[in-house]
Amino acid sequence: MTSNILEIKNLRKSFGEDLVLQNLCLAIPEHSVKVLIGASGSGKSTLLRCVNLLEAIDDGEIFLDGEDISAFGVNPDTVRSSIGSVFQSFNLFPHLSVLENITLAPRHVHGKSKNEADAEAMELLSRFGLAEKAHQYPDLLSGGQQQRVAILRAVINRPKVLLLDEVTSALDPILIAEVLSLISELKTAGMTMMIATHEMGFARQVADELLFLHNGRICEVGDPTLLLESPKTPELQAFLAALRGAGRL
Ligand code: ADP
Ligand code: MG
């Protein structure tokens, strides 16, 4: 038994000669939110993709709710059915309505009836102000609405952990806020999450703990306000100074 929903031990990942994640350890207790920050190329996406078994790891272990999902012979589809992931580009199916997008996995992976899946999806859409979009096709929605639908499509399966990778970086500033507020509501509802973001204000608000990645290592970790206001390492100081210089902090 463990209270950690996700636990990563000594993860190592390389692409050819390129060591992208090294000696990486982290643990995410149930209902907590960890936010990954770091320069482009620091390894945030690769880490999330390793957890989702989209990348094979070279060394280390990944435990999901106590089960070693990095062990030989684990079925990746089974693992992925209890992990929700949403990435930068909304990958909704354009030929399916919002409701059909959201109910696809509940019906075809989790064996729910159409009525049951539709009822759950409508409840979720109503809760997040999207009920009137249920029968529309994704391309009629704003980018922010599409991304919210993509997140709800992951949430409806009641994942043990939700992985969000730069979910707002393709959006206009005005649409970013509505996506971030949905994520904050999910946190309030107790969703366990690992989030990679460039939005430092959001990171500070939603993170129980901030992890700063630099060259594939967790370089600094801790309380978000402490890290952002009193960075200890020269690497984090430089990263924050660069953001500040670009007007993004
Ligand atoms: P981040 O998400 O923090 O920007 P990534 O995880 O995307 O960082 O990338 C980390 C490093 O891994 C980068 O140097 C990137 O070029 C490299 N990388 C990522 N994916 C691949 C891949 N499929 N093949 C080769 N190198 C990759
Ligand atoms: Mg990335």
Explain this structure to me?
It is a single chain. With 249 residues, the chain is an alpha/beta fold. The protein has a single domain (4-15, 32-213, 222-245), classed as 3-Layer(aba) Sandwich (Rossmann fold), CATH 3.40.50. It is built from nine helices and ten strands. The chain has helices spanning 44-51, 76-80, 98-108, 114-127, 143-155, 173-188, 200-206, 224-229, 234-245; strands spanning 4-15, 18-29, 33-37, 59-64, 67-68, 83-86, 161-165, 193-196, 209-214, 217-222. A hairpin with a 2-residue loop joins strand 9 and strand 10. Adenosine-5'-diphosphate binds next to strand 2 and helix 1. Residues 15, 18, 20, 38, 40-46 line the site of adenosine-5'-diphosphate.
